[in-house]
Amino acid sequence: MKIREAIVLAGGLGTRLRPAVSDVPKCLAPVAGKPFLSYVIDHFRNEGVEQFIFSLGYKHELIEDFILSEFPELSHQKFIEKEPLGTGGAVYAACGLAEEKSVLIINGDTLFRINLRKLIPFHFMTGAHCTLSLKPMQNFDRYGAVRLYPDYRVQSFEEKKFHETGNINGGVYALNATQFRKESFDEVFSFERDYLEKHLPDRRIYGVIQNEYFIDIGIPEDYDRAGKELPALK
Question: How far apart are alpha carbons 87 and 184 in whole angstroms?
Answer without folding.
Answer: 15
